[in-house]
Amino acid sequence: MMRRALIAAVIVVTCGASSARAADAAFTQFIASLWPEAQAEGVSRATFDEQTRGLEPDYKLPDLILPGRPATGAPSQAEFVQVPADYVKEASIARLAGEGQRLLQKYRGPLSEIEKKSGVPATVMLAIWGRETDYGRYTLPYDLVRVLATQAYVGRRKDQYRTEFILALKIISEGVVTRKDMRSSWAGATGLTQFLPSEYYKHGVDFDGDGRIDIWHSVPDALASAAQQLVNKGWQSGVRWAYEVQAPAKVDCTSGVPEVTKPIGQWLREGFVPVRGQRLSAAEQAQPASLLQPEGIYGPSFLTTKNYFVIKEYNFSDLYVLFVGHLADRMTSPLPFATPWSASKQLRTRDVETMQRGLTRAGLYKDKIDGKAGMQTRAALGAYQKSAGLKVDCWPSEEVLRSIQAAR
């Protein structure tokens, strides 16, 4: 009996090892098949062989589709699962703003020149750097080449990462940076201001004139590249990212979507009031803006400009833009948001997904099911609350979730 058990155990271990070897062989074969594409992009054979020799997939990464295993989703990024009060923490903003003020002086020359050329304020560039890598102090946890190779092999977005992997090898082949210094996030963003390799080639700027676009070591290059990315995505010079306002008591929170855009002056005539008695010029009042209420009718309200959505293309999260925009403001003003965040609780991701499915069935929600209570979800939720005779606050609560589930 003991002998049979031992034999069975040996068979299991042997089969497991054989399966692992087969999987590794398939990965190696997949990587080898990418050589023609890499060659077409100008990657040298020596670089390709050196960077792929002994390369192994990292199956612990999120957002993979592995045979025989449950699909792993993207991790719940902080800007999507935390309530605003937890994400836009005053202590974090104050610390980063203080450091940003110091860096404004340290890099005054290049920042002034970049701002003059791009129209992007120096404070916005620094705020992106501060949010992405804590001004370069945060060590990114992953090897970029391994991340991109794994995502290209078994990731949910294989085709995208296939291209990113090839371009990462191209960067190395051009001698811009060593692989050791190409640390990244799990999603393949790298450098001081977090670019994908494709973004590096689209928006990268050699500001310091040394013949290389070095977003890993050159602060001027990294900041100029971040500014150029914003410009390429439609940044409007001289326009703020948003204005904090006091909303009227009977505000319709379902209008807080990008599709509802009016001149700021029209919002003011409808009862929205700039905080702290701020007076807006005629040019400012002529700017088109959308309403943003990150906590529904609770907490601060904002009128967001075109530049708000440009920053959002850098990282598709309302809380990310609020963090970056507010941090940029705090480098020149000590004032926090005029209206404090509420003590609201955020539903778990799977509960928001359940809510989104219910809203979809009701014909109120047409965006993706992602468990994130963004603008479209909050507006659809408010529309449901109207139809169900509930208090309309556009915030995903347990009460509304139960109502949606009961309506099935």
Describe this entry's structure for a reader.
Helix 7 (108-118) runs parallel beside helix 12 (219-232), helix 8 crosses helix 16 (318-330) and helix 15 (306-314) packs across helix 16 (318-330). This protein folds into 4 domains: 19-56 and 141-190, no CATH class; 80-140 and 206-232, no CATH class; 242-304, no CATH class; 349-403, no CATH class. The model is unreliable at 5-20 (pLDDT under 50). It has 19 helices and 8 strands. Helices cover 51% and strands 6% of the residues. It is α+β, with helices and mostly antiparallel strands. The strands form 2 sheets. Strands 4-6-8-3-5 form a 5-stranded antiparallel sheet. A two-stranded antiparallel ribbon has the order 1-2.
Task: Explain briefly what this protein structure is.
The chain is of the alpha+beta class and 408 residues long.
What helical percentage do the residues reach? 40-55%
By oligomeric state, this entry counts as single chain
Coarse morphology: globular
Poorly predicted regions are 5-20
Give the terminus-to-terminus CA distance: 55 Å
Number of helices: 19
Query: Which structural class best describes the helix and strand composition?
Result: alpha+beta
Radius of gyration: 25 Å
**What is the H-and-E element order?**
HHHHHHHHEHHEHHEEHEHEEEHHHHH
Give, in spatial order, the strands making up the sheet with the most strands. Answer: 4-6-8-3-5
The tally of beta strands, per DSSP, is 8
Tally of structural domains: 4
Range of strand content: 5-15%
Largest sheet: 5 strands, antiparallel
Report mean pLDDT, rounded to a whole number: 92
